[in-house]
Write a structure and sequence with these properties.
With about 180 residues, this protein is α/β, with parallel strands linked by helices. It has five helices and nine strands. The radius of gyration is 16 Å and the shape is globular.
């Protein structure tokens, strides 16, 4: 399951021998692009909010997932919605599932950008760069059945982090049935 799949870049990297891939994104335009890029029979894309993923999967009898990808999506959600997404992981996953989370994070402090006009996007930009400690706390609170198995910076080479206040970090979670 790929929450916030965008145009389906992760789908491009996933081998065809998996049982199924399902990508959700809030943007219908991005889902249209994802569907146009990937025509594999066992891959599908759906325009849907990540907060509605668990209900959608339950209503459509979609089996629980062994792996979930959340990459660069939670910076666009408020704290309540991040909590809802993390809480839904238990319902969405099978025993011993693995969850990969990659987000740009505030290096020392939380940063909130509100109504900032981006020349690159030609649009107002809103985002929250939470710290690693904030994500750790949210995972413990909203996804208590998941253990943080690994975490760290995406790029060991500081030159690859092209921002002063933020950097790409990842968490790998494993569902603990104990």
């Amino acid at each position: 399951l790929d929450l916030g799949c965008g145009i389906g870049r992760w789908a491009d990297a996933i081998p065809e021998d998996i049982t199924s891939y399902l990508g959700f994104d809030f943007s219908e335009d991005l889902i249209t692009i994802a569907k146009g890029r990937n025509h594999r029979e066992n891959f599908s894309f759906q325009a849907l909010s990540a907060m509605d993923a668990a209900r959608y999967c339950q209503d459509n009898d979609i089996p629980r997932f062994s792996h979930i990808i959340i990459s660069g999506m939670m910076i666009y959600l408020n704290d309540i919605d991040v909590g809802r997404v993390l809480a839904s992981l238990d319902v969405l996953t099978q025993k011993n599932a693995i969850v990969y989370i990659r987000e740009p994070m505030g290096i020392t402090n939380r940063l909130t950008v509100k109504d900032f006009y981006s020349e690159e996007l030609k649009h107002d930009y809103n985002t929250i760069y939470r710290t690693r400690d904030e994500y750790r706390s949210m995972i413990r609170t909203f996804a208590p059945r998941f253990e943080i198995c690994e975490h760290g910076p995406m790029f060991e080479n500081a030159a690859l982090n092209n921002r002063k206040e933020t950097a790409q970090f990842y968490f790998i979670l494993k569902k603990n049935m104990g």
